[in-house]
Design goal:
The chain is α+β, with helices and mostly antiparallel strands and 256 residues long. Helix content is 20%, strand content 21%. The chain is globular and about 50 Å long.
Length: 256
């Protein structure tokens, strides 16, 4: 067993992750840290905003609600703010990821930030992340860092426990890949409510989505997608500026 397993997660947490396909780690960041990163993300959103900025709401998400919804988000946040470069290499974050993946080496696939605005923050249809960037060994996992509280009314993440055991699923291809709502209704998925500083880890085969933010407060998150560097993509579907950066350990396959 890896040292990282003992140090960063308990045996019970590791068992839960492998059984359910996800793990919420409470208080990985201190509340003051989460507040600092939240302020940085909202300041960055104001700096990057322009009339030409596209709303990243999925087309299929608009079928989940009667009222129009909106969303703010962008990739590669570490290239806009050094604060996020520090966060994605934070020993606490990468230590848990290493333990859950069962490898001492953690490589970045990409980052993305989201701000669900109050009252009409867009939902995400149920899906696996696999269709967006399939890999040969299925090691890819996501870490959603909560920078403010995410109760159900703020549109928290919802998961289908154990769904990772189904393997890659056939997704509907109208717009971005998503699962049929009659097979995986979002309201039937388990809401994973979180507090500022909590981090939700889940594998890219775990079925998940999120609801509408109907609250009076924004929901602010950082998404970090990571992999074992020896797990190679089977299709080059999701390039990013930071892909391949080592967050922990080494790349055993690297050549000068």
């Amino acid at each position: 067993m890896l040292d990282t397993t003992v140090r960063y997660v308990t045996e019970d947490q590791l068992t839960s992750y492998h059984e359910d396909g996800y793990l919420l780690v409470k208080g990985l960041l201190e509340p003051e840290e989460a507040a600092m990163y939240r302020a940085e993300q909202h300041a960055l959103a104001r700096r990057l905003a322009s009339p030409d900025t596209a709303d990243p709401t999925w087309g299929s998400a608009r079928e989940l609600t009667d009222a129009p919804t909106t969303l703010s988000g962008w990739h590669d946040v570490q290239f806009y703010s050094a604060a996020f470069s520090r966060l994605i290499t934070d020993d606490r974050l990468t230590g848990v990821a290493a333990a859950l993946m069962g490898t001492p080496n953690v490589q970045l696939h990409h980052t993305k930030v989201f701000i669900k605005p109050p009252e009409n923050g867009s939902p995400f249809p149920m899906h696996q992340d696999h269709p967006f960037f399939p890999h040969s060994k299925h090691s890819v996992l996501a870490a959603i860092v909560h920078l403010d509280d995410a109760p159900e009314e703020r549109g928290c993440v919802r998961v289908v426990p154990g769904s990772h055991k189904l393997g890659p699923l056939e997704h509907l291809q109208d717009g971005l890949p998503h699962l049929a709502a009659d097979r995986f209704p979002i309201e039937a998925a388990v809401p994973v409510e979180a507090e500022a500083g909590d981090v939700l880890f889940f594998g890219y085969l775990t079925v998940h989505g999120s609801g509408v933010n109907v609250s009076s407060e924004a929901r602010t998150t950082l998404l970090v997608q990571m992999r074992d560097p020896q797990d190679k993509p089977t299709e080059d579907l999701h390039p990013s500026r930071g892909q391949g950066m080592m967050l922990r350990g080494i790349d055993p396959d690297a050549r000068a």
